[in-house]
Design goal:
Radius of gyration: 19 Å
Helix content: 10-25%
Largest sheet: 6 strands, antiparallel
Oligomer: single chain
Order of helices and strands: HEEEEHEEHEEEEEEEEEHEEEE
CATH topology of the largest domain: Jelly Rolls
Number of helices: 4
Strand content: 35-45%
Structural class: mainly beta
CATH class of the largest domain: Mainly Beta
Distance between the termini: 16 Å
CATH architecture of the largest domain: Sandwich
Shape: globular
Number of domains: 2
Length: 282
């Protein structure tokens, strides 16, 4: 199916199966329908005793895993997903900020400055046998939690194809300079890195592709350029985002080359890094 056909097709909002095993300390799961539609977005509605969950209740959730045919596409803490979404929110249609009880997985690229690329990265299911969403629930839940799933879909099946991917990595910061290397993949295109400082204080971030420096900025300049691009810097994060215009063609193509990130710290410490990619032909 041609991607232009998908982009031109109307989207529908559908309620699909609720997550199962939504219990304290459990892993909530849902098997999403495959082979009949293409996903643009998933909106999860989380309630406890019929009341929309608060920000702190959502942030207490553990990791979220999205798997296609058993292979992990997305893996990150729900709290980090909220921060990544809010970083992009000022450019996204629908406003800014946190909506009580809501968790969004957006597979498209609505912040792109090119209309033709807004739907890039939609999640096709024509060639999938399974698509599973899993969320690790906190042990502190009391009452009756429930997670409903609402999908924005195009009722035209397409192959998985090009997909937006979010993944978490832990980086140990035991010196003033720490290097972190990503395993090179031929079909990986980097949009940006969202670095959660924790107890560390980062002064600057440098990215290298092979022997070439592709990003080298101090933290306050990173924050300024994000703001100038209409992004919302999140407290406790450094958003090293080279592709601020959100153009697919301007993402950093790794092309199988070694990709390395250098963190310069004024206060060393462990950080959590969320990488945001597009991967072609997953």
């Amino acid at each position: 199916m041609n991607k232009n056909t998908i982009q031109a097709a109307p989207a529908f909002l559908e309620k699909i199966q609720d997550l199962q095993n939504v219990v304290a300390g459990g892993r909530a799961t849902v098997s999403l329908p495959v082979g009949i539609a293409t996903y643009r977005k998933l909106n999860l509605r989380y309630t406890i005793n019929g009341t929309l969950a608060t920000l702190s209740q959502i942030q207490a959730m553990g990791d979220l895993h999205l798997k296609a045919n058993g292979k992990t596409l997305w893996q990150l803490a729900v709290s980090d997903l909220l921060s990544v979404n809010q970083y992009h929110e000022t450019n996204r249609k629908g406003g800014v900020g946190f909506d009580a009880g809501m968790i969004t997985l957006d597979f498209t690229n609505p912040a792109s400055k090119r209309l033709s690329e807004e739907d890039f990265g939609h999640l096709g299911t024509a060639d999938l046998n399974s698509l599973t969403l899993e969320i690790d629930m906190p042990a502190s839940i009391t009452g009756s939690p429930k997670i409903e799933t609402f999908a924005e879909i195009v009722p035209i099946p397409a192959p998985l194809g090009d997909i937006r991917i979010l993944r978490t990595h832990s980086v140990t910061g035991n010196s003033s300079l720490v290097q972190w290397a990503e395993h090179p993949v031929d079909n990986l295109f980097l949009q940006g890195l969202h670095v959660k400082e924790g107890s560390a204080v980062i002064d600057s971030i440098k990215m290298k592709l092979g022997n070439r420096i592709v990003f080298d900025r101090v933290k306050d300049v990173i924050a300024l350029q994000n703001k100038q691009a209409g992004k919302a810097n999140q407290s406790g994060y450094v958003h090293a985002y080279p592709n601020l215009r959100e153009r697919v063609a301007e993402a950093i193509a790794l092309k199988g080359q070694p990709f390395m990130v250098e963190f310069n710290y004024s206060t060393p410490g462990n950080v959590t890094l969320v990488s945001e990619y597009y991967q072609r032909g997953v």
